[in-house]
Amino acid sequence: MRGRRWLAALPTGLVASPVVAAETATRILDLTQNVYAYLALMIFVLGYICVVLEERLELRKSKPVIVAAGLVWILVALAYRQQGDMHTAGIELQRYILDYAELFLFLIAAMTYVNMLEERRVFAALRTWLVTREFSLRQIYWVTGLLTFILSPIADNLSTALLMGAVVLAVGNHHYRFISVGCVNVVVAANAGGAFSPFGDITTLMVWQQEKVAFPEFGLLLLPSLVNWLVPALIMSTVVEPSQPGGERRHQRMKKGGVTIMLMFIATIALSVLVHSLLHLPPVLGMMTGLGALKMYGYFLSQHDPIYREQGHITHHHADNSSTQSMLRGDHTGVIRRFDIFKVVERESWDTLMFFYGVVLCVGGLATLGYLSNLSTLLYGSLGVTLANSLIGLMSALVDNIPIMVAVLGMDPGMTLPQWLLATLTVGTGGSLLSIGSAAGVALMGQARGTYTFFSHLRWSWAILLGYSASILCHLWLNGH
């Protein structure tokens, strides 16, 4: 009874908000000429300028967009209130928060698996295997590119780029031209590989979860994505020497449970796909179920991994006396287990996840004011669908691909499946044109600081553009019907 009275006392918006958001018909007004709309657009632009200048300002990109999101929606509510509409802004905001929450939980599960594989040294073991194979520089160039293309649809393009970038640096030693070209090759392969899988990039995940493209239909982008990477890779390979590399030969073995976690990750992906395709439930249910299973397995690992004292010297052994066993149960804060699943979760890219929140809400606010409807008419009505989708891909080299895809999904210009696939391909791979156009490029610039730079990447932008154009033509030839 107390529980029922407590539930009845809650505000209606907290208890039934999803139902209200789903069943209440809202009418989006064109308020783009309103002073509040002008202010909202200006705030979004200022926030994004801070994102672009992230390195110079040393201000994490999530901070300005989160503030901008709050201010934009306050202005949206004031604009609708001025029109006598007291409900549309709140209902639309709840809808965008619900969309973000689903993507957030999905990404948390996927990132935890990737970080767990890293913690178990799966990637380090792969890097050791590559470095010790005695490949030539040209062979390493092709092996790292091919493995990047194969792994990025599963492990996401950023994580794969960092892994293969580490291999390029390890074997490159003083071969600076190889490191520079090898990093460009890895960035292009990571973005191309991530374009034909919902798990390869946030943008493809959004397209899948919005049910614009079914999971098997992403396979139609395999050959265009391969062309997107191979064309510039073939051109750049002409400057790679066939000589033997130098570099470190440090051996690292995979820790216990690495293979099991890889199999669990594959099973979790399969469960998400089946839950979505057969039961028509959100795929996040499968991912979170897999995350729960991973946490259970993490408990098993914590019982068998060595322990250490944070400020002491208890390592690689388990004590038998009762006092130490008491500390193992958590009765002494100075002793912690070597493996802790929550330590793995702490390593998530929280800045990216919070940035995603700010972008989704900012773009959603501008859509509610009518900006995206007007932009859709301008792009897809005036230029044509194919040309518009090709141009938005080029825009993603200057503007992060996440807000661009959020904007395209918000416009929802009524495209056919081949055109949604084209938009997925171009937005996912257009960022390869510049080193700052994708998270993979930005991350590798930090990893190979001074060798792989903006201008070293720009030197090959013409070749990447050829691959970009060829991939579009390949897609239109194969899937245009």
UniProtKB/TrEMBL annotation:
Residue ranges of domain Citrate transporter-like in the record: 49-428
Topology in the lipid bilayer: Multi-pass membrane protein
Cleavable signal peptide: 1-21
Localization: Membrane
InterPro entries the UniProt entry points to: Cit_transptr-like_dom, NhaD-like
Keyword set, alphabetical order: Antiport, Ion transport, Membrane, Signal, Sodium, Sodium transport, Transmembrane, Transmembrane helix, Transport
Chain segments annotated as transmembrane: 37-53, 65-81, 93-114, 135-155, 261-279, 354-372, 379-399, 419-446, 458-478
One Pfam family per UniProt: CitMHS
Membrane as UniProt keyword: yes
Keyword Metal-binding: no
Stated family: Belongs to the NhaD Na(+)/H(+) (TC 2.A.62) antiporter family.
Classification via PANTHER family: SODIUM/PROTON ANTIPORTER 1-RELATED (PTHR43269), SODIUM_PROTON ANTIPORTER 1-RELATED (PTHR43269:SF2)
Protein name (Swiss-Prot/TrEMBL): Sodium:proton antiporter NhaD
Protein source organism: Marinobacterium alkalitolerans
Lineage: Bacteria, Pseudomonadati, Pseudomonadota, Gammaproteobacteria, Oceanospirillales
